[in-house]
Amino acid sequence: MKRYLAIDIGASSGRHILGWRENGELKTEEVYRFQNGADEENGHLVWDLERLEREVRAGIDCALAKCPQIESLSIDTWGVDYVLFRGDEPVLPCYAYRDSRTQAVIDQVHEKIPFEELYARTGIQFQPFNTIYQLYADKAAGRLEGVDGYLMLPEYLMWRLCGKKAHEYTEATTTGLVNAASGEFDKVIIEKLGFPPALFHELSQPGTVLGKYKGIRVVLCPTHDTASAVEGIPMEGEELFLSSGTWSLLGAKLLKPITTPESRIANFSNEGGVGYVRYLKNIMGMWMVNTLRSELCPEQSFSEIEKEVEKSGYEGLVDVTSQAFLAPKSMSGAVKSTLLENGYPAPETVGDYFRCAYRSLAIGYGNAVRELEQLTGRHYEKLYLVGGGAKNQFLNRLTQAATGKTVIALPIEATALGNLQCQIKAAQPAQK
After folding, report:
1. Is residue 228 assigned to a domain?
2. Taking the model in full, what pTM does it have?
3. Which of 80, 162, 225, 424 is the most buried (most CB within 10 A)?
4. Active-site annotation, residues
5. Reduced to 3 states, what is the DSSP secondary structure of residue 353?
6. Strand 39-41's sheet: what is its strand order?
7. What is the pLDDT of residue 236?
8. Are residues 274 and 221 in contact, defined by beta-carbon separation less than 8 angstroms?
9. Are residues 82 and 120 in the same domain?
């Protein structure tokens, strides 16, 4: 029985999951898990690349101890973050997307190429941490001098394993530098912003074999974790998906991108999928909920928190797409101040804070669904919900009421499943 290894790394944790086909079903087993998070260094948020690599290698060793014969492995992570190179030497630090360094250059980027034009070319929604702004911050700081390459984080980690550099399509689309029509890096944007052309190469598709590590084939999966998650959702026909993790990504699969002014104003994104466009909206997601828990009641389980929520009658709401909740010094403080600014009384109990967060998230989902249906001209009956948020039954009930859709909550490792399925598909020609 052939085994495959998915290494799925999120902004707060990573996991190594073995997968195999058994009686026509994809079975999985988690063999390694580690904590992740950005470090503060000289006033900036950065990723510890050496630690990430150590954890990746340690998890592979655990997998090999469990199963000495592994056909292939692949790594997926969040989007937008990258490592610059001079030759084969990384340019450090590797900044984390929640760092505020892009705030000073966003207007400068839009002076050179207005966001209306950026969106018409790429179809990527505005986020202050998009790679395009991070790279311009690097340029302004002189960090691009002598740089002749870059890799997104999953590509970097796989290069460290097998020695092959490649730019994978789904992850590349999160940069805001890929043309939505051509599916390749947009030369006009690159030229207008003065980025070194040598940084940008032909994009590779999921399924591309890069090399080997300890006898294991290293394969590109959809390396953007949401792209892998969508591949892992067992949807019936054309339905909506909601990947509920640190971020909530709500969208649908489309054959062609939508880059109209109306789509831009609604702040929807056209990200790369495996043979389709992931038309979606980024919503703050469980980041808000998890951060509130760590601040207010780290000793309580979510089931205990739900009991507190059930007792609360608090009616205050916040806009979960607000940048105020991106990286506040205190999430509860940001929620409280926003509520007061909006004329609501201050929350008094743990239940009040979480009731506000859950209701605000559900309403955000409902608004996004209605916008999506209007922009696509389609009506959807079902919403497939995966990720950590799928386990939250209280939020699921609110989501069903707010969206008017039948919510199918699947508390599965959808990202790992999509990662594995792509590896298995890539292996099929070699097995004939």
Report:
1. no
2. 0.90
3. 225
4. 225
5. helix
6. 39-41, 44-47, 94-95
7. 83
8. no
9. yes
Q: Residue 166: what residue type?
A: A
Domain annotation covers residue 394: yes
CATH of the domain at 69: 3.30.420.40
In the block, residue with structure tokens 């409280």: 336
Same structural domain for residues 171 and 256?
A: no
In order, the DSSP letters of 359-404 are: HHHHHHHHHHHHHHHHHHT----EEEEESGGGG-HHHHHHHHHHH-
Q: Are 178 and 186 in contact (CB under 8 A)?
A: yes
Q: Is the pLDDT of residue 432 over 50?
A: no
Same domain, 375 and 326: yes
CB 7 within 8 A of CB 73: yes
Average of per-residue pLDDT values in the chain: 95
Which H or E run includes 254? strand 248-254
Q: Give the structural domain span for 205.
A: 4-223
Write the pLDDT tens digit of every residue in 54-65: 999 999 999 999
Overall number of domains in the chain: 2
- According to the model, what pLDDT value does residue 292 have? 96
% of the chain beyond a pLDDT of 70: 99
Cβ contacts of 364 within 8 Å, gap of 6 or more: 248, 283, 284, 319, 320, 321
